[in-house]
Amino acid sequence: MKQYFRLYRWVLLSLAVTIAILAAAAGYTVGIVSQNSVIAQIDMNIGSIEAYLEKNKDSSAMLTEEFKEEYAAKTRTIAMILDQDSSFITDDRTLEELRVTVNADRISVADTNGSVVASTDPSGEGTKIRSEFTPHLSEKVYTDVLFLLESDTPTIIAASTLDGGHGMIQITFPADNVVSLLKEADLANLAVDRPLYSYGTTSILDADTLKYVSCTDTAQIGKTASFEKSSLKKKKGNFDITDADGNQEMVHYQTSGDYVILATVPYHDINHMRNVVIGWIVCGGAGMLAVTALSLRMVFLRKEKSKK
């Protein structure tokens, strides 16, 4: 065997070195391509978010104000109708027709003490109007709207005084469409629909405080980013961080007005394809090396046999 290795060690060593060089070159090339591919995907996400920020700045607040004016107008209109003919208050049929007209879930009428004396929902009679409205029962002209959108059944509740402060009307509206529209305009939900790889995140930070305004990991919203502000001194760039588990991550960012849009991707996600390619080359090369070694050994044994 010693003679065998003396004869063929350079062949085997050259093959092993070639496999190692091929694995290293392929790993480097695929690694660069994978990283550039990730950055290109991040830039696409950042571009779409930046376009949204420019087009829909403060749109959530504007939509909320528009909806508030719309529901306040509906409620005030119903209050004026009831003021003109107080007999409508005790007419269940008329109240129901008014409810259907404004597409509401319930219309309730309260006296000067805030107790419900008439309602399109009989179970509501004898209850009180919402506490937010009761301090305004004596006001001659009062209309306000509450957006209760965080509950399991989101609703909009509007109230308006009757007959110069001698009672109040309270109308409950469904809020499914409002929730849907506000969600589309809300920055907090902007990044949620832009996930990046298995463990990557897309985020929007406040440029001054570095607090998460939006993030695919919604638990981060409102928290302050863990890295230094100096890391974001350029208009656009990359830097590396280490997560709580000790894993290296790449951060690619771009500033846009009052915000910083960034994506974080663990290197084990970025390098997954590179590692697969290296693994296949190493395993394939090891197989080739073994086959070559066995073939040379067979040649060697035949030569030794012929000598004898």
Which tags fit this structure?
308 residues, alpha+beta, 5-stranded antiparallel sheet, 6 helices, 10 strands, elongated
Q: What does this 3D model show about the protein?
A:
The chain has 308 residues and is of the alpha+beta class. The protein has 6 helices and 10 strands. The protein has helices spanning 2-55, 59-84, 92-101, 176-185, 267-270, 272-307, and strands at residues 106-110, 116-119, 143-148, 155-161, 168-174, 201-206, 212-215, 236-242, 248-256, 259-266. The strands form 2 sheets. A 5-stranded antiparallel β-sheet has the order 2-1-5-4-3. The chain has a 5-stranded antiparallel β-sheet with strand order 7-6-10-9-8. A hairpin with a 6-residue loop joins strand 4 and strand 5. The two termini are 16 Å apart. The model has no long low-confidence stretch (mean pLDDT 81).
Compute the separation of the termini in Å.
Answer: 16 Å
What percent of residues are in strands?
A: 15-25%
Mean pLDDT: 81
Rg, Å, rounded: 35 Å
Name the structural class. alpha+beta
Number of helices: 6
How many distinct beta strands? Answer: 10
- The shape is elongated
Q: Regions with pLDDT < 50 over 5+ consecutive residues?
A: none
What characterizes the major β-sheet? 5 strands, antiparallel
List the secondary-structure elements in sequence, H or E: HHHEEEEEHEEEEEHH
* Percent of residues in helices: 40-55%
Side by side, the strands of the main sheet go 2-1-5-4-3
Please render the helix and strand layout as text.
Blueprint: H1 2-55, H2 59-84, H3 92-101, E1 106-110, E2 116-119, E3 143-148, E4 155-161, E5 168-174, H4 176-185, E6 201-206, E7 212-215, E8 236-242, E9 248-256, E10 259-266, H5 267-270, H6 272-307
Antiparallel strand pairs: 1-2, 1-5, 3-4, 4-5, 6-7, 6-10, 8-9, 9-10
